[in-house]
Amino acid sequence: MEQSLGARENTVYVGRKNVMNYVLAVITQLNQEGHDHVNVVARGQSISRAVDVTQIVKNKFNLQTRVASIELGTETFTNESGKPSKVSTIRITIAKQ
Q1: What is the spatial distance between Cα 48 and Cα 16, in angstroms, rounded to a whole number?
Q2: What value, to the nearest 5°, has the Cα angle with vertex 49 and ends 10 and 97?
Q3: All structural domains of the chain
Q4: Where does 44-96 show beta strands of DSSP type E?
Q5: What angle (nearest 5°) sits at the alpha carbon of residue 92, between those of residues 87 and 97?
Q6: What is the pLDDT of residues 16-67, one digit of tens each?
Q7: CA distances from 96 to 8, 27, 69, 71 (A)
């Protein structure tokens, strides 16, 4: 996945918080005027949480949304011991219909 993730104001980065915190962030972004899509971005162990967020937004809230695209990738970084390490990444674009 590219380092530059595009428009950051349309991006929700998923980490270790409760899933509903991210769901609320996505819904808030989608309800803002001029935002027709939101990128849900996660890496490593948070990928499954990003998928959960997407499914909850799509299926539990009547927002007329769809999954516009899914991008998978790998980021390389230097870990604490100084060795290069790779982590999987995902970017799910949720768009208004």
Answers
A1: 11
A2: 45
A3: 8-96 (3.30.110.20)
A4: 65-78, 84-96
A5: 180
A6: 999 999 999 999 999 988 889 999 999 999 999 999 999 999 999 878 999 9
A7: 18, 11, 12, 18
pTM of the model: 0.85
Whether the pLDDT of residue 6 is over 60: the answer is no
Compute, in degrees rounded to 10, the torsion defined by CA atoms 40, 24, 94, 42.
10
Q: Give 26's contacts (C-beta < 8 A, 6+ positions apart).
A: 12, 38, 40, 53, 57, 94
C-alpha distances (whole Å) from 57 to each of 2, 79, 83, 89, 90 are 25, 34, 38, 20, 17
> Tokens in use for 78?
């230097």
pLDDT-based confidence at 7, cuts 50/70/90? low
Cα separation values, 73 from 43, 63, 66, Å: 9, 28, 21
